[in-house]
Write a structure and sequence with these properties.
The complex is a heterodimer of chains A (about 375) and B (about 260). Chain A has an 8-stranded parallel β-barrel, surrounded by 6 helices. In chain A, strands 2-6 form a two-stranded antiparallel sheet. Chain A starts with about 20 loop residues before the first helix and ends in a 7-residue tail after the last strand. Chain A has helices at about 20-30, 40-50, 55-60, 70-85, 120-135, 155-165, 180-190, 200-210, 215-220, 225-230, 245-265, 290-305, 320-325, 360-370; strands at about 85-95, 105, 140-145, 170-175, 190-195, 210, 235, 270, 310-315, 330-335, 375. By secondary structure, chain A is an alpha/beta fold. In chain B, helix 2 (about 80-90) packs parallel to helix 3, helix 3 runs parallel beside helix 4 and helix 6 packs parallel to helix 8. Chain B is about 35% helix and about 15% strand. Chain B is of the alpha/beta class and about 260 residues long. Chain B has a single domain (about 10-255), classed as Aldolase class I (TIM Barrel). The longest helix of chain B has 21 residues, at about 215-235. Classes of the chains: A alpha/beta (about 375), B alpha/beta (about 260). The interface of A and B includes residues 85, 267 and 379 of A.
Chain lengths: ~375, ~260
């Protein structure tokens, strides 16, 4: 274990510290979450309510709620329909670089993992964008590893500008930035930011983030606030379920989003529910205690606690699972996914971050949605 | 059957139907189905969903003869709403604009202050502005002064299907404001639409209530009939409803004439 190198709770020089007590609030509430003490009565009481309190949210995430998945699914379906109708947003990710300075023990991009590294040139990015745009998609999510030398903010900014030419919605899933850097990328054409805390357990966080800027827990935690202060419109939350106690992490994710929405009422909130997946040189990297039942429970709990929030279902999950949770809890689905660097137009320039379980194309996912009575939505945002 | 002369007039345009269809929560085919049944003449369109030149473009599902009412959904302030309205006009959606300014992603309640500001700008630019608003008399008066063509107060939180939770406030607006009134959000049942129309509201807008019905076409028709019934009742003048006790058949003060 390589702990004790760098204090994971202390900011590095250059990392913007904002005045916010949200992290302490989340941690205090998570510490007191003893999910074993909830009973079926608590779950039933929560499910009878129109709006769930934080205490109700604790109950529906507890093991006792496992017996009420059907009831939770029915209520979640109703809430999803009430807030989103039968609209399902479609998008795809584009990895533009897999260079990374971080050593995160669960990730295929980690700097210790011997994989093919690569970065797309701006010309290559444009070729990829054209290829993806030809599928009809209008929303793109740009991803990089964390390496300011190889994929700096200006490089990402240029990629965002190119993306905005072909897509109405440009999201970024990159390393955490200062608010002025988020403002720059917003100016370039991006409006949505995904930052997943991976785990909210600071001890576990320290154990799995051995090296690199990602090791700094609070800087990552406050990314969403900095993004909103930089003018971003929406922020996505998530934990890497299965990395630590998924119930506590899922509880923290919901709380984090809830507190942020209270502080920034205009923020568009969404959730993702990634689970550990195998990657090159680590075929056994799997979520052991967060199986599909538990994952479904987590998604349903998110929906019931924050019925207005978007939920994205990842290609990490198999098609059969995705097809059933879409419209029930999830409101956004990726299609035509490649998780290597590039790979849409030309051959991949770098290896994949993880293995995906649903390789279906855009037309295939489109048809699946229609067959389930859902409406594929290609554009749901107009930038003005 | 209502008289053909009883038309809804907004910004100089006449409509026979007093039911407006929201499209945000429908499958495009469902929208088409409802339109085919001839129950509406005006359909809202979220500009952010208009995938012009792309797949599943709602504009292709709205036939000629139906008035497209683009909305500014997604606007968080007056400035964004104005820009979205201008874009709607640029892509050929005409001068109608349903103004929505929402600064709260949880409850989706309208921001009345920003709505007034945007109304003033858009009305000056020749838009037929139909602002979605929380039913507040002072704001409604400000909207009139800003040049709104109608007022669209919410009946209940959007998508809630709870009916006329704001009934008493809408009634005040109907009495005091001389503009067409369209109850926008919250109507969940045909009976609630009927009740709104009986109060003197000029039209009702529905989305979730029809979109989430078991039989969409049938529910759309039920709403059409309810809106017509409510309108007819309003025009007929509702009969008196005695509240605490029966009315004496002879005047209680008749004795005053005895000598």
């Amino acid at each position: 274990m390589m702990t004790g190198q760098e204090n994971h709770m202390a900011y590095r020089e250059g990392m913007e510290a904002i005045d916010s007590d949200m992290m302490e609030k989340v941690q205090a509430l998570v510490e007191t979450y003893d999910y074993q003490r909830y009973t079926g009565d608590d779950v039933r009481r929560a499910l009878r309510k129109e709006r769930l309190s934080i205490e109700d949210y604790r109950a529906v995430l507890s093991p006792a709620a496992a017996d009420y998945l059907e009831e939770m699914a029915a209520k979640a379906t109703m809430e999803t329909r009430r807030h989103f109708g039968n609209s399902i947003q479609m998008f795809t990710p584009l990895y533009i670089s897999n260079y990374c300075e971080n050593h995160c023990v669960y990730c295929g991009f980690n700097c210790q993992n011997r994989i093919n590294r690569g970065k797309l040139s701006l010309e290559e990015i444009e070729e990829e964008l054209k290829e993806i745009a030809a599928t009809g998609l209008k929303e793109i999510l740009l991803l990089t590893g964390e390496a300011r030398q190889q994929s700096g903010v200006e490089y990402i900014g240029e990629a965002v500008k190119l993306s905005a030419r072909y897509f109405s919605t440009v999201g970024i899933e990159i390393y955490p930035l200062n608010s002025d850097e988020y403002a720059y990328l917003h100016e370039c054409g991006s409006d949505f930011v995904c930052v997943y805390q991976e785990t909210y357990n600071t001890d576990k966080y320290e154990q799995v983030h051995l090296r690199g800027p990602k090791r700094i827990f609070p800087y990552r935690f406050h990314s969403h606030e900095r993004a909103l202060r930089g003018g971003m419109r929406g922020v996505a939350f998530g934990a890497l379920l299965g990395l630590d106690d998924f119930r506590k992490d899922a509880f923290a994710v919901g709380l984090h989003a809830h507190l942020l929405q209270q502080k920034y009422p205009h923020a568009e909130i969404s959730f993702s529910t990634p689970r550990l997946r195998p990657y090159i040189n680590n075929a056994t990297n799997n979520s052991n205690d967060d199986h599909e039942r538990q994952l479904l429970q987590t998604m349903l709990a998110y929906r019931l606690f924050m019925p207005f929030a978007g939920i994205t279902i990842s290609t990490r999950e198999r098609a059969g699972f995705r097809d059933h949770v879409i419209g029930m809890a999830a409101t956004k689905i990726s299609a035509g996914v490649r998780v290597g660097v590039g790979g849409h137009k030309a051959e991949e320039k770098g290896d994949e971050q993880l293995e995906i379980a649903d390789p279906r194309s855009v037309p295939e996912v489109h048809q699946m949605l229609l067959s389930r009575g859902l409406q594929p939505v290609y554009t749901d945002f107009v930038r003005v | 059957m209502l008289s053909m002369n009883d038309q809804l007039v907004i910004g100089g345009h006449e409509f026979q139907s007093r039911l407006i269809l929201g499209s945000g929560k429908f499958s495009l085919e469902m929208t088409q189905t409802v339109i085919k049944h001839g129950v509406v003449e005006m359909v809202t369109l979220a500009l952010r969903r208009a995938n012009v030149g792309g797949q599943e473009n709602i504009l292709e599902y709205i036939p000629k003869g139906i008035t497209v009412l683009p909305n500014t959904s997604g606007a968080r302030n007056a400035q964004e709403a104005v820009r979205i309205a201008r874009l709607a006009r640029e892509i050929g959606c005409g001068d109608f604009i349903k103004l929505e300014v929402i600064h709260d992603s949880k409850y989706l309640l309208p921001d009345n202050y920003e709505t007034v500001k945007a109304t003033e700008i858009l009305a000056k630019e020749g838009f037929i502005v139909m602002p979605y608003m929380y039913p507040d008399l002072n704001v409604a008066r400000a909207l009139v002064n800003a040049g709104a063509a109608s007022v669209m107060p919410l009946g209940a939180p959007i998508g809630s299907n709870k009916g006329l939770c704001t009934k008493d406030f809408i009634r005040i607006l109907v009495e005091e404001i001389d503009l067409p009134f369209i109850v926008d959000a919250g109507i969940g049942r045909p009976s609630q639409a009927c009740e709104a129309m009986e109060m003197g509201v000029d039209a009702v807008m529905c989305n979730t209530a029809i979109a989430t019905a078991g039989n969409i076409a049938q529910m759309a028709r039920a709403f059409k009939l309810a809106v017509e019934a409510g309108r007819a009742a309003y025009l007929a003048g509702l009969g008196r409803v005695l509240e605490a006790r029966a009315e004496a058949s002879s005047p209680l003060t008749g004795f005053l004439e005895e000598c």
